[in-house]
Amino acid sequence: MQDPEIAEKIANHPCYSAEAHQYYARMHVAVAPGCNIQCNFCNRKFDCANESRPGVTSTLLTPEDALAKVKLVASEIKQMSVLGIAGPGDPLANPKPTFRTMELVARDCPDIKLCLSTNGLRLPEFVDRIVDLNVDHVTITINMIDPEVGERIYPWVAWRGKRYTGREASKILSEQQLAGLAALTERKILCKVNSVMIPGINDEHLVEVSRTVKGLGAFLHNVMPLVSAPEHGTVFGLTGQRGPTPQELKALQDRCEQDDGAEMNMMRHCRQCRADAVGLLGEDRGDEFLPETFQGREIAYDLAGRQQAHEEIERWRTEVAATRQTLNIATGARIPDVPAAEPVRPDEVVLVAVATKGSGVVNQHFGHAGEFWIYEAGPGWARLVQTRDVDRYCNGPSDCDEDASKLDRTIEMLSDCAAVLCSKIGLGPREALEEAGIEPVEIYDLIDKAVAEVGARLVTDRAPAEVGTP
Ligand code: CLF
Ligand code: SF4
């Protein structure tokens, strides 16, 4: 059943609704530099790895500059609907600039949703402030609920003027995180929990984390892969701790989703954005908004223009949803914010990869795709289950088809997919995909429709071969 209050909250939030992320953008402002804990996957030179991919840094802004930037971006990218504060350190370890920024944005940009991402250590003390500021969405990164697991992730926690280490540190952190989560859900704030999947350390444990946070009222669980390399200079990077493969990540997300029939909502489309990310998830337009474009400038807020742009998006979204309903296609969303068929997963599905620039359409050239969206596909079924980064190997017609090693990596990344849907594909990659047993499908159509149709055909085509297979 659709809960209208929740549906309204997620309707244009690109992280809380996979469907919305095809149309709406988010931006982050980097106003929070410090942190009160240490994670073994973090290097303070970079953005908070609990919400970001390590290896990128953001320019720190004052709350006033952050407001100017929000106004500028809001006028240029009208589908930007959410402002998140996610670093580069922990927002609640820097409460003054974090809340000052939110106050200013709430004052001048009334149609922008406010979003916060935190390690949760100081969450309980700020619950009232969060409620007062109308922050609708809070993300807490919870990587463990067992201090024995935690001591392998967190070397220390700074708490009430003292530095704690070992299990005691993780015990304090976990208690604060869970108390904060419970207090927020009690106040009807929509909460997402992020967890970094660290193979051999917390991967098995995350199923229990998922069950626990669901019990405390978390709306969504986002299990993200550890991104770890020696050049990041992190403890895990230097000790060779690996991250999970996309297949391992999906398997764990599936387990969390179905654990004991608990049916936790799992986020499958996180891009591990940087602390100053701007644009649709998966694109970063931060370079268009360098400090000299907004710092110290008076920027007008185009509320009417934004409302008009959002109305146009909603008209198109309604059309896409109507097509989905007519064709009886389900997307698997448990609380759909726009109508789809009842989520009944067919017995047999295949994975297909989609190249898209957004708006719900297969509209990107294979060689231009920096990422592929992985769908479960079958009769009446088109469910986004993952996004995977690949190197763009084509920089234009002159080198199209040429960089074989990048193409090999892309094909390796898509090896468990039965087909790739894209608007165009060159001869070289077409042949290479076919050789790898992946069908290239050139198509320009609605993603849900194309995925369900191709999925239905592939499932039927495969059926005879699988009859009698042990
Ligand atoms: Fe930003 Fe995070 Fe809010 Fe989204 S990101 S503070 S909830 S507006 Fe989104 Fe980016 Fe993943 Fe975060 S894709 S890293 S989940
Ligand atoms: Fe780094 Fe974020 Fe962990 Fe703080 S909470 S140590 S900024 S990853």
TrEMBL record:
This protein's UniProt keywords: 4Fe-4S, Iron, Iron-sulfur, Lyase, Metal-binding, Nitrogen fixation, S-adenosyl-L-methionine
Pathway the protein acts in: Cofactor biosynthesis; Fe-Mo cofactor biosynthesis
The keyword S-adenosyl-L-methionine is annotated on this UniProt entry: yes
GO molecular function: 4 iron, 4 sulfur cluster binding; lyase activity; metal ion binding
Key word Cell division present: no
Domain of life: Bacteria
Cofactor(s) annotated in UniProt: [4Fe-4S] cluster
InterPro entries in UniProt: Aldolase_TIM (IPR013785), Di-Nase_FeMo-co_biosynth (IPR003731), DiNase_FeMo-co_biosyn_sf (IPR036105), MoaA_NifB_PqqE_Fe-S-bd_CS (IPR000385), Nase_CF_NifB (IPR005980), NifB_C (IPR034165), rSAM (IPR007197), rSAM_sf (IPR058240)
SUPFAM superfamilies, per database record: Nitrogenase accessory factor-like, Radical SAM enzymes
Domain (Radical SAM core): residue spans on this chain: 21-268
Gene3D superfamilies for the chain: Aldolase class I, Dinitrogenase iron-molybdenum cofactor biosynthesis domain
NCBIfam families per the UniProt record, alphabetical: nifB (TIGR01290)
Function: Involved in the biosynthesis of the iron-molybdenum cofactor (FeMo-co or M-cluster) found in the dinitrogenase enzyme of the nitrogenase complex in nitrogen-fixing microorganisms. NifB catalyzes the crucial step of radical SAM-dependent carbide insertion that occurs concomitant with the insertion of a 9th sulfur and the rearrangement/coupling of two [4Fe-4S] clusters into a [8Fe-9S-C] cluster, the precursor to the M-cluster.
Family per record: Belongs to the radical SAM superfamily. NifB family.
Protein name: FeMo cofactor biosynthesis protein NifB
Gene of this entry: nifB
